[in-house]
Structure formats: C-alpha cells, structure tokens
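Minimal example, chain plus FE3-S4 cluster.
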Amino acid sequence: YATPASPSHLNPHPARKVAIPPYQKILRKFEDVRRILPKKHLTLAEKILYSHLANPEESLLTSTNNGDNIRGNANLKLKPDRVAMQDASAQMALLQFMTCNLPSTAVPASIHCDHMIVGEKGADTDLAESIKGNKEVFAFLESAAKRYGIEFWPPGAGIIHQTVLENYAAPGLMMLGTDSHTPNAGGLGAIAIGVGGADAVDALVDAPWELKAPKILGVRLEGELSGWASPKDVILHLAGLLTVRGGTGFIVEYHGSGVDALSATGMATICNMGAEVGATTSIFPFSSSMIPYLKATGRGSMIDAAKGIAYGPGPYNFLKADTDAQYDELVRIDLSSLEPHINGPFTPDLSTPLSQFADAVKANKWPETFGAGLIGSCTNSSYEDMTRAEDLVKQAATAGLKPKSDFFITPGSEQIRATLEDSNTLQTFSSAGGTVLANACGPCIGQWKRTDGIQRGDSNAILSSYNRNFPGRNDGNAKTMNFLASPEIVTAMCYSGSTSFNPTTDSIGDFRFQPPKGMHLPSRGFSMGNPDFQPSPARPDHSVNVVIDPHSDRLAVLEPFDAFPEADLKLQVLYKVKGQCTTDTISAAGPWLKYKGHLPNISENTLIGAINAATGETNVAYDFDGSKYGIPELAAKWKSQGHSWLVVAEDNYGEGSAREHAALQPRYLGGRIILAKSFARIHETNLKKQGIVPLTFEDKSDYNKIDALDAVEPVGLLDVLKSGGTGHVELRVTKKDGQPFNIPVKHTLSKDQCGFVLAGSALNLLAKKGRL
Ligand code: F3S
C-alpha cells in the first residue's frame, strides 16, 4: 500500500476516465416516465428515481392507482448506475457477492479503505500502523476488487463520501453506497442512497433494488448565508426541526433562491447529514456552483453533458423540479437570518442556537470545558471549510493565541489534503498545535486512541464538525458528550476551551474573532497528491485469486441461512429493549470493526448496548432458570439448544446507520422476528434481506404487555409470506404462567421480501431462482 509519507505532488489530474453517468439511457427512461405520467408535475428526486426504474410501467402504474399515490405506496424496482463501498461494509458485501460466482460486477463499483484507520498521533504514524494491523482485510478487499473489476482506493486515499464527491457524483446519477452518509453526493445533484451490503449486492448482480417510493419533503432556502453561518448550520437547524425521525420515508429536496449562493461542497455537507433526520436521501438541483467544482476536480467533460440534460427542451429539463411540483411537506429556511447551531450531546437533533448555548450548558449541567475539537471528516473537510477554519487560526495566531483544547484535523481525501498542503493551510493548523490525522474516518467511527488521560466512564465533552454523536461513537466512552458544530465554530471555540464561549460575541482577553473568510475552491484547482493513493483500474482480472485463510479470525466464508420452516414459528422473547436502539447498540463499532468479515466472531457483540426494559441493566439477559448472561451469550446458548427467538423494542429500532451486521448477527444467532414500535428504514430492509421479519405493534401500548422469556407464536405469518404479503399477522403470547393472549401487529413485507424470508435470505432466493 501507499506509504503515508506524502510530499505534495502538484500533478495535474491523471488521465483517468471521467465517470459520466449513462445519460442517454437515463433520458430514454425519463421519456417513458413522462409518457406514463403525462400530467404529473414531478419533483427532481422523482425524475431521477423513476428514470432508474427497471420497468417504469410496472412500478408506476400497476402497483398504484394508475399513477396516483405513487409516493409512499409504489414499490420501486430500481437499477442504480453505480455502487460505492467502504472497507468495513465492503467485506460482507463482497463475501455475499462472491457466493454468486459472477465474473465481474454488473455496474461500476468502488471500494474505499477509510473506516479501519486509527486516529491517534497523526497521519504518518497512524496510517502505517493501521495498514499493518489490517493487512489481511485490505489484501482481501484489494484482491477481490482486482478480480471483479472494482476500483480500489487504498488506505490513505480518503473517506468514501469525499472521494465519491470528487470522482463519481454527478447530476442525475443514481447510486447506492454501503454507508449511511452516501447522500453526501446529493450536493452534486445525485440521488445517492445508503444501504446495507446485501442491497449493494442487488445492484452488483443486476437484480433490481427495491424501495418503497419515498415521499418528498421540500426545503425551500431563501436569502444568503453570511458571517459565521455555514452550510452545516442549515442541517443542524433542520435536524432540530425534524428530529431524528422526521425524515423517515422522505427524500429531502432542497430548492429556492437560496440554493444558488451555496457551494457544491456546502450542499454536500447538508445532504450528508440528512442521514441524521432519517431521510432516504437528500438532493440539490443542478446549480451554477456545481460547474466550477466539476472543473476543479478534473471533470470538465461532464459539464456539457449535464447542461444538456439540465436545460434542454421538453423532457430534457431533467435536473430540477417541474415548476408546479408538489411536496408532501414543506419547510422554509431563511439563510440570511440563520445563526450557527450546536447539536447534542448524544443525539444530533438536540439543536441549540449558538447564542443560547451557554445557557443550555448551565441548565443541563453539561461540562463547562471540552478536551478536544475535531474538524474535517466526510461531512466537513472541503476547501471552503478548511480555509475558513484557517482564517480563524491565523487571526488567533496574530494575537499570540494557541488552542486550549486538543485540535484534530481530518482531511476527507488525499486530493483535499494535498491541496491544503500546497496552500499552507495544514501547516497553519500544525503550527497552532493541531494534529493532522490520516485521510480516513478515524475518530468519527470510534477509531480514536485518546492520549489526553480521559478514561472509559469519565464524563467529558468534545466538539466536532462530524455528523453523528451517539454515545461511545468517537472514543468508545459512552460518557463522552460530542457536540456537533461547523468547523469554524469548533475551531474558534478550541481557543477558549470553554463550552460557554461564543466566538461571535465573546472575547479572549482583548482578542475577538472576526467572522471567518474562506474560498469555495482553490484558485489553481485541486492537487492530485500522492499518486500511490490513486485507485486500481476497473478491469476484472480473473487470474487474481481471492484468498481467505480458513483459520482467519477476521474473515470467514458465508454459510447460507436456513429457510423459513413449513409451519408457523415457535419463539421466545430473548430480550425486551428499553429506549433508543441504534445499529451501534445492536452491533457496536470501535474494536469490533475488525471482525466485520467474520460473522461468528462479530456476533459476540450482538445487542451489547441494549438496555433491559425490566431491570435497566445494559447487556444483561436472564434465562428461564434465572441465570444471568450477556445477550449474545444467551442467544448463542439458545441457538445451540435449537430455540429461535425474537427481540421486543421501542421506536426507530435500528436507527443510525446502514450497518447490515445489525441484521446478520441476530439472524446468525437464531433471531427470527424483531417486534418494535417502529423501525428505521434501512435497517428494516436489511432485516428482511437476511430473513428476519420486522413487525410493529398495531397499538404501541402493547409493548407493555410483552416481556422477556414470554413464548410467542406468530399467527398467520406463514400465510402472509406464501401469499406475497397479503393478510394479517397476530402474535399469540404466553407468559410463563399465564393465559395466552393475542397482540395484533403490522408488517411491510412486499412480495419479493416474502420470498427472501421464505428462502432464508435474499441471496438464498437469488441463488434458488438460478439468476446467479
Ligand atoms: Fe467515516 Fe464518519 Fe463519514 S465514519 S464515512 S467520516 S460519518
């Protein structure tokens, strides 16, 4: 792999082919959509999505009332243009893809080694160490990429979403990514959806990928940002308005006069964090700032192609919403009066305007100081973000100030890192005492080795420009409160070290920051950086063997799951979860990331973050004789005894990420049903793909009637599965010593998904149908 020592290479962009979406094909489909729905005024998201349907007629007419009520009802069977995978989720996606015995992927795909790089001392040391520690996995990914013709971006090349934005995202593109923040590409007018590995495999094998037609939430932007307010504040504010559940089932579509003044990278930041409101994805219309960004990233040839479909006559007016398009919900944001926001702790929707934050710190007894400020990541490492932060560092340096908190900078890609090196921005950060980490996820995904003395269990605060702040996410310490803000606010607050400091109004001694100034794009275009960080070519080479050591504890070949039994199930409640249950709760990250390619090993973390509804304990389950177990231990015990089980949970079960392990692991350990008050969309789909049935209470208060160790028999489930999704299901619940009673429940199984469950998993079904 490329060594981290990377003197800046001010090379022109290499002669890589520009990845232009198949516009002619997309437009032909779009003409079909116009013909099928002649009177409909379509939103931008609908135009792009429906133009990627395998069969527009079938999806738009047959499954709906003749083209009415498509949103929220129709099952869209989609053919995405491309797939991107990060290293942690790519392992399982590739292991699944390999079971299909295909010579190459059906659509262009890329792998990005970013999640497994630790952040500690700085890029040079950390990258070399991480490569050493993960050699086996990177070698597996690289060999599989070469064999199947997937572009492989080595460790150090950058974070998936930044690399995608710089190389693959394009107006009108539709892509899937095995990471929740894939919607980042919406900043360049793409429909980009975060999915689990099994969904990615659908696209990789040319099977249609199914999605319930999302509703469209319009966000009308008016006015213009100024002073301290940044694109990040748009989404921090919106997250407060919508909450983590508010975008579920929606695509967030931005429009309005305020769009034009936003940079492409700023729009990407906004779309990136749309994942935090649970949205299927977020998108901006083709706008003037996309043109210089495409040019600066070496994709001038895409501009004419995009303009051709954006502004053409009739059906070619493709890259913006029709004038009379209707939104299912509408939010207005006045950018001119928007102030910076700080969101958190522990949830990204707890949004506080900066001017009220000091009071909130006092009222909530949040820590008065914070130990570290972290900027960059896939969310906020654009040239604009970094040069605005640099301006603040320079202002403070003139006054002789140094940051009081530790200050970390994560460039999103080698391209941005090298460009910032050339403009001396990184040197400015380093001279102020900042630590520049590798071009990788690092502290954003629990790969942060803190050296400031904070121990597990110590309550403390940090500030970051990241997107997510669930407990334990950054340093594995559930007591670390991560407050999310723009890079500018994080940087300026580092100079005070106080959570109550408002850099827009307060002074440090005699010094007061002026609003930051930066540049959207580097005046001389982006540098390529170290050529060793370029990807491998997308040419399948069948002479390459994908080798998995049978004794590896990191990688294991997948065994197919068993089919659904020919009689209704008999289950026991393994665990009743209280409160939030994110994919981090179900399949923790941090040190467990290294077992992503080894299902038996990673299953030992199943639900270890879940709170027992009866006792309030975390990861403590009880067997029938009263003995105490960790949840995965009890599940494994029941599996060995042949008992299948279900989990009972509250709202938005599986929120947080596309992590398919959160579905695979319970399935591997014998889970058959998850019964919840509601589900996060991606996770609900992931469960069905792995053969687990997600059910919701018809009456949420029935959650109170069912407990751990209750016996549960689904009534009517087999009939529903066999009929392709029609009919009702009830759960017959029997307490240890009580009379049975029924709980009515709801399912969202489509015909195809019923097939997945009956076959044992989606891949089992594909294999059975002989499609592979
Ligand atoms: Fe990586 Fe964090 Fe983004 S894990 S992909 S930097 S959200």
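The pocket of FE3-S4 cluster is lined by residues 114-115, 159-161, 179, 181, 377-378, 441, 444-445, 467-468 (CB under 6 Å). The chain has 25 helices and 28 strands.
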